[in-house]
Each structure stands twice: as C-alpha cells, then as structure tokens.
C-alpha cells in the first residue's frame, strides 16, 4: 500500500484548538467492524458499550514540560528545544529550531541562566544532541522552566496552567512522555468509577509517548516505514488482570494507539500478555494480525500518519476512511483536543 492511500480531506476549522470545558463532553463515534455501521453518541455513553468482564487498558504515562525556550550565546538569537529522550545523565536528544544554526559547540541559555547547555552533536536525522551544564536537580529545573509541548497544528501559544492540566489524563502517573496519549483525555474519575461498578476491569501499563508516535511517514511504500521505539512497561499485575479477563471471555479494550502498541509488544506466541519492559519497536500497518486487542478507543488522527495506519490495520482501510468522512460530515472535532471513536 502507498501512504497516499491513507489521505482524507479535513476542513481546518474542524481541528480542535482548545479542550472542551468538560473532559467527557466530547462526542463519540462508535464503529462496528462486523456490520460496518456507525453510531453517533456522546463519550459519557461509553459505559454502555463496555460489558462486565471486559478489560479496559490505560496508558498511565505522564507528559512533562519538554519545550524549552532560550537564546544562543553570545548572539542572543532565540532557540526552541523539544526534549526527546535522555541518552545519558545531562545528555539529551532534542528537536531544535532554528536547527541549522545549532552546530556542535553552540552554547544555549534557558530562562535567564537557570539552565545552560552545549550542542555536542548534529545527527543526520535532523535532531540535535545537547549536554546540560550540571545542576543539582535537572528534571526539577526542567519542570520549573519548561512548557507543555502542544502539537504544531494547535495554532496558539500554550496556556501554561490550563494545558498542563488538560493535556494530561486524569490517571497519569509515570513521568516521561513528550505528548499525551490523547484517547485517554476524555475520561473522568466518575466514568472510571462507573465502569468499575459495572464490573469492567481496568489495567494500566506505561508507554512514554515519544517522537516515534508523531514522526511523519516519509516513504511512499507503507511497508518501508518504521516507527521509532518508545519505552514501555507492562507489569505482572497488569498482565494478570488482562489474561484473566480474556480467559473468562471478556474483551481487551485498548485506550489509544500507544496502549495498542504496548499490548501487541507484550503478547507471547501463546497469545498471553507477559510482563515486559523495554522498547516498543512494533510498526503496525494494514495486514497486521492483532493478538492482544479486541476493541480500540482512539482519537481522529492526521492524514498519512502512522497512527492512521494502525487504526486502518485494526478496522480495515475502507471502513476507517469512511468513518473519517462520516466524522467530517457530522462536524466532529479532530486531533489531540478533539472527539473520539470506539471501534468494536
């Protein structure tokens, strides 16, 4: 398949620029794979579609303020850095603007000298490697001066306090993501409690969303694309809950594409989830045989993206694109702060 086969038209005004005032006020498109039908409803009704014995699997990663603003020394030119991953103590791989001016040896100062760094490498992949000057608590300093790294299609400045809260799931625990697992943004404690009361089991794993999740697909032949690895952990406790649910006939419902990648990276040849810790390097494209996930809750994704490829692998390309066209006609809100779909 060609990546151009996974395109669709989206009016710009349907790209959500702000979160709704209430998390669970979003709309929900329910897609039935067996009948090929769609149901338009509200997210609060998600509890009607999960049954006793099902297992809802959440990604409890927590976004950290990975966007740093600074200036080059001594010229004073502005610099924007997005922290991608820690390579070793004080050494980070980053995306930087303007990258072409940040050659090895360039000095950067952040937030009035609270933090400084030196560019130490310029890999061919367009990223930069910087080494921070040593400070007593680097992550604490980053947390103090950093900003929430909103996606580039949100055309506004970050609203520090509001976005730090809303671009985060209510169950976020493990710090390490540079982007939110957005399918989980719709949940409230009340909805999770109602699911538990309905005897839906809930399991949590951790996949730290990194550059691999939103890196553009730069090849025409889909089979040539590889999603970069992202750190994940499936605990023995989570594996036990998921396996018991499936053994009893319950469905495994993944909240988001990141949860899906982690689950499919944790399944054994026997079809059981095993405790796993490492990098999820699985690239899921149409033709993939899902062994761990029975249903998927997901937001609407960018055209020609690896996330749309994963959803198309789960629901089928034709049905997925028809669902997207339906969502456009019905004026759903798209992308990170937008509405969602439940694929059964």
Give a brief rundown of this model:
The protein has 344 residues and is of the alpha/beta class.
Topology summary:
Elements: E1 27-32, E2 37-42, E3 55-59, E4 61-63, E5 67-73, E6 78-88, E7 91-97, E8 107-110, E9 115-121, E10 128-132, H1 138-145, H2 160-166, E11 174-177, H3 189-197, E12 201-207, H4 211-214, E13 230-234, H5 236-247, E14 252-255, H6 257-264, E15 276-280, E16 295-299, H7 306-315, H8 317-329, E17 340-343
Parallel strand pairs: 1-17, 3-12, 3-14, 4-11, 14-16
Antiparallel strand pairs: 1-2, 5-6, 5-8, 6-7, 7-10, 8-9, 9-10, 12-13, 13-15, 16-17
Helix pairs in contact: 7-8
What would your notes on this structure say?
This protein has helices spanning 138-145, 160-166, 189-197, 211-214, 236-247, 257-264, 306-315, 317-329, and strands at residues 27-32, 37-42, 55-59, 61-63, 67-73, 78-88, 91-97, 107-110, 115-121, 128-132, 174-177, 201-207, 230-234, 252-255, 276-280, 295-299, 340-343. The protein is an alpha/beta fold and 344 residues long. It folds into two domains: 3-63 and 164-343, QueA-like (3-Layer(aba) Sandwich), CATH 3.40.1780; 67-145, Thrombin, subunit H (Beta Barrel). Strand 8 and strand 9 (115-121) form a beta hairpin. Helix 7 crosses helix 8 (317-329). The two termini are 24 Å apart.
